[in-house]
Amino acid sequence: MADARFAYACKMGAGGEPMKRQLGTMERALVFVDDLSSLFIVVALRLVNGPPPEVLQRALAILQKRHPLLRVRIVKEGGRLYFETAADAPAIPLQVSRRQDDQQWRAVTEAELNGQIDAGSAPLMRVHYLHAGGQDAPGEVILSCHHTIMDAAAGANFCRELLSLCGTLWAGQPIEGYGPLAPVPPAERLYPAAFQGGRRLWRTATFLLRQMRDEMSYRRQAGAGRRPAVHAAVQTRCLFAQLPADATARFAGRARREGVTLNSGLAAAELLAVHKHLYQGQAIPLRAIAFSDLRPYLKPPVRPENLGSYFSMLQYTVPMGGQQDLWALARTVQQSIYRLNKRGDKFVTPLLTKTLFQMMSKQRAYRLAATGLSYTDAVDLEPSYGPIRVVGLHGFIPNNPLGPEYALFGRLLFDRLWLDVFYSPEDLDRPTAQAITDEICHLVGEDR
What we know:
Layout: H1 2-9, E1 10-11, E2 20-22, H2 25-36, E3 40-48, H3 53-66, E4 72-77, E5 80-85, E6 94-98, H4 104-113, E7 125-131, E8 138-146, H5 152-170, H6 197-222, E9 237-243, H7 245-258, H8 262-278, E10 284-293, E11 311-320, H9 326-342, H10 345-363, E12 371-376, E13 384-385, E14 388-396, E15 406-413, E16 416-423, H11 430-445
Parallel strand pairs: 6-7, 10-12, 12-15
Antiparallel strand pairs: 1-2, 2-5, 3-8, 3-14, 4-5, 7-8, 9-16, 10-11, 13-14, 15-16
């Protein structure tokens, strides 16, 4: 059934053939936000003994043939948006720069975050390689791509494929297992039966009623408390931190004993730190955003090998004030997210995300949330791929004038918890952003 609906809306391309596929609801929302304020993903792979640039270029060429979304542009026809294979799609742009020092990759990453990606031109990805050459020299591969073709799960898998290919090519070994993939339909075409047809309309209507009620309640409780400004435009700055393996193990062990996920524990720490440093501990409800991976819940599930954006954005509110315990707050966060998922909000929210942003961009009165967190359990990366050694993986997105004041990506990699922070200097200065980050690390790393 899903295949039939997909074939109706899309000229499917497989085996490297051209494709034309209408964008789904979340994809259209991402395009709208990109038009409002640039929205894409920047991934920084930190390596030791990175591959020669020509090897990296060959690996990118193989992956461009493998993934149909690396050959498309976004076009508008008859008021509708489509992914369309560009007949003359050039190779993924690769810029190679001589690596100068350990700070250079951060400057390049921030420059990328404050740039743009032209959605009307293929491909929707570019790469900047900071390469020093020489045995055991450090280097960074910085990938920037439009959010419609990449989410966290696909990004981690793409990095694994890229590193594996580079290691194999550099060793002169034959390439196997990287044949072309067929396009995958947008998420809503793969929703469970309970979220299709008339039942989807009913669930959407009830969701809207709940949202209206929750919005009125939130504004009443927030009262005259601190309200972050909605800026006309923002810049993006980034920070990163990591928790040592022993501290990560203690945090994971305590979370298990408390019966909460690492996601909930980290979200609670983020809320506490932001509440302390930005809201001075005042009694006030704070909104937070959690990002949910939809891929395992679709019918059939969408594997990380397939590029695309298959995620949902869940908004919840928690009361803050006084001396709050991290783990008590983590349980509140977990219960809030569980309740939203149980009633199916993770499937309904993507259908209305564009409408939400359209309303907020017109009103320009409220921000989406105080905090935002996207968390990924153990990332499937090996410490080395042939002679290439992996020492770090970071991910960032540009800030949005309507987005959270403080946002981060969290992941488990090599038995450590990694935190990538992005914020706007229009909202907070670097010392404050660093203080919040340090507070989070203290909260989750403290031996309790």
